[in-house]
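Predict both folds.
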Amino acid sequence: MSVTINDTDKKILQLLRKHPQHAEFQAALKEEFPDYPRARLCRLRKQVGHSAELGRPTANQQDRNAAIVSALRRGQKMIDIANELDLSEGMISRIARSNFGDLREDSFKYSVAIMSVRPDVLAKKTWPLVQRYGLQRVSIFTTAAIAHRMRVEFIYDHYKIDDKVVILYDDVKRISEIIDGAWQELDSFDGVCREAFTCMTRSSLHIAGLRPSKFKSHEVCTEPSLFSLHLVYDPVHFIINKRRYRSPQFMLKTDYENSVINFKADGGVVRLNKYTMDVVYNHRNDVGNKAVAEKLARKYKDYLYASGTDLRVRARHLLDRPSKRPRLS
């Protein structure tokens, strides 16, 4: 949705041009316009690449923008393009995203793995999201004959150590984010992936996920949780591949066990609290879930306890440790 530009917006855009580096701009914005709505800023920034004093781009600008994207597609590094054109890397990145969509630097290349044994569900649910968000480097793991736990292991073995992988299940209907206190359908999934991998890289963590459901807006902390054991749920999650999850014992609740394994290894997992997912879960096996929950609770008794057919994290592991937080900006 486009923004109708007012005088304050023009001043914000002047700040963007004056401070192309993200940290500098955020500091200037906080000092001069501390109450400027974040959601409006996001929409406004999407229009920067389409503006010539807030109008349509001139022919020269269009030619320059096309040349920038062509150079990126040829593999030329962003810093070299910036030096040639006397522009900041941030401006190059905004021009590329605003005019030509999803272009990623080499350091943010990631693959997408979709787990599915139900082609009809995939066609109705997750695949339309893949098309809507223009996801690339997609592999679909479909072999119904392979047990779930072996398919999980196969995905980890399929990718190299330290590969960045987005893992999706076939029944994801929608991904939402909270903006101005309300849940709204996500515009760009690439931005979520970048945020997940940035948090993991800068925090030396290796798995990330989303909030499992739409809590009321006043209950939502939008800052990422890092050094605590918030469970990372299977339908939408992100890994920097360490091949830690070897031969899971059970076909149920693999995401619970994977979360604990990564928490024990790294001292934390990432949960992006301002995003959530709507998933059409298949039939629940309450008897099987209860049995597995009890076994996992015994296996990881210092971290989890059983609650009916489900598992809960012990309270002491839910407290984020701010002293370990890195600077993310």
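Second protein follows, with its predicted structure tokens after the sequence.
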Amino acid sequence: MNSITDLLDLEDSEIIIKDIQIHGQTKTLFLETPPIVHFCPICGYRMHSRGVKSRKIKHPILQDNYSLILILKQRRWRCSNPECRYDTSESFKFVNRQRRTTNATDMLIVNAYRNLLETSASIAKRFNVSDTYAHEVFNRYVKLDTIMKMPFSISTINLRIIVN
């Protein structure tokens, strides 16, 4: 199953694919990590599992006109020290906390802005995000204020270097 995680370009090597379901044009992968012992970063006590919560993540890389949804089984942990009671949940390298799309989405959005004939609304619709979010991603990775101060030939080269 590791070949599937390599194919999807998921950065986390510890992921186990538990199930794959296909419903119409949607492929759903159920992913989880093997249980390992956790220790509290504050007090050093051992943490116990509080259960598993599922997160639904959209992966923007489409294959054969299928949309891909990742269901992450995320364990929640609590410190066993009654004075500390620190809470945390497992993290995955390919998705940030409280996000519903993978980190690959940002790079694909920036790459989509290379086509000057495409609007922000169409880019946002293609990646199932708002047009405001698409603008924020573009501004986060491409610094237009420094590009506008340079001569045209240098600014074109700079834009390609930043995007790549």
